Amino acid sequence: MSPDILDRDSVPTIGFIIRETASAFAEAGLETPGLDARLLMSHTLSCDGARLVAIENDRLGSHQAELFEQLCERRLEGEPVHRILGHREFWGRHFILNSHTLEPRPDSEVLIEAVLARIDRSGRHDEPLHILDLGTGTGVLGLTLAAELRSSFAILTDISSDALQAASLNAQELGLAKRVSLKKGNWFDALKDCDGRAFDIIVSNPPYIPSGTMSGLQKEVRLHDPVAALDGGNDGLDPYRVIFSQAVRFLTPEGVLVVEHGFDQRDVLCLLAEESGWRVESQLNDLGGNARGLVLTPD
Ligand code: GLN
User: pLDDT of 229-246, one tens digit each?
Assistant: First the structure.
């Protein structure tokens, strides 16, 4: 055997590295070790999962091996895998994140499902509906609705211009820039120059963690999601108070308000909504069966 072949044989294949990494991740207690290892390898090689399977007997170049190792170290230090990748899928689409945006979660997809089902029932799917997403972050909620409802227009608001930058990039990447506008400001203050504008759909996943319990959050959330996207004030309900008291002014008479909330906030939020003049049309559970959202109409 020539020294060359000996050398080559001593370099592990991509498939082998993925398996070894997955067991190291499992040993470190990560929840989805195999998936994380494959995602980080796909990112290293700029390829998708299918391609990764096809090249599992190939070997990494030295730069790639070094990059992969750095990504794995970040993961082992507790950085969430989608923060490392800088993007996450939501409702089948690709969303770019930055350090000022919440990482989109599949739980929020129940809000999309509820809105689309309601619009389909009313037969208005192809109408030029107006959508408002308050505290948009990456833009997942408003942009997904705008993408699904092809004749709609959406306004996305956020208090953070850095978050709006991510939402703007996502709007462009999804080819939605012409039907979407971005406005900076705190809740409805962002709409100062849109007086009298009425929306068919207002959607929001506001910060809802009570300030005093922030330190008890899961490490991946506490250390890597932005505080401004999480902290909902003393009892976690401050943003809902603002939204419930003002949204009716910005809704069409048949319009709907859909909000996400924490797993233990359903009862208190239903009360708050009813006291503020809303009818609870439906209560939404997420994929894990937890209370997750409310569909509200003006009473
Ligand atoms: N609307 C965004 C999302 O659902 C951001 C929510 C937030 O920052 N609280 O991910």
Answer: 999 999 999 999 999 999
| CB of residue 226 inside a 6 A radius of ligand 1 | no
- Please tell me the predicted confidence (pLDDT) of residue 210: 93
- 71 has which bridge partners? none
Helix (H) or strand (E) holding 170: helix 161-173
Q: What's the mean pLDDT in 259-284?
A: 97
- Residues 6 or more apart from 296 whose CB is under 8 A from it? 244, 256, 257, 258, 259, 273, 278, 279, 280, 281
Query: Is the Cβ atom of 209 under 6 angstroms away from ligand 1?
Result: no
Residue 264 CB neighbour total at 10 angstroms: 10
How far apart are the CA of 14 and the centre of ligand 1, in A?
36
Look up the pTM and report it: 0.92
118 vs 112, 133, 155, 181, CA distance in Å? 10, 17, 20, 24
Residue with tokens 């902290």: 231
The whole-angstrom separation of Cα 294 and Cα 24 is 41
Residue nearest to ligand 1 atom 4, measured at CA: 205
**Cα torsion at 166, 171, 172, 174 (round to 10°)?**
120
* C-alpha distances in Å from residue 12, one per residue of 22, 50, 69, 296: 15, 20, 14, 56
